[in-house]
Amino acid sequence: MIDINEKICSYITKNWLIPWLKEDKSQNSFAKNHDVEESTVRKIKSDNTYRIPVETLYRICKARKLTLEQFFKLINE
């Protein structure tokens, strides 16, 4: 069974961060746009043991105009 934190971070990385970076935008701009620290973005992207706080996930979802409920439906599709 996949760890929920790993699933969340993987979804954010694959579906939001990588496309952002492919548009020649920086991790720092992603962080600012999503109301989190750049160090948090690094952890989401590369630390398989990162336990993402609900507050962080909430900020990222809010910036994406998603509720937490909508986000969890997305990662479970």
Automatic annotation (TrEMBL):
Chain segments annotated as transmembrane: none
InterPro entries in alphabetical order: Cro/C1-type_HTH, Lambda_DNA-bd_dom_sf
Organism (species): Epilithonimonas ginsengisoli
Signal peptide positions (record): none
Coiled coil: none
Domain HTH cro/C1-type: 26-76
Lineage: superkingdom: Bacteria
Protein name listed in UniProt: Helix-turn-helix domain-containing protein
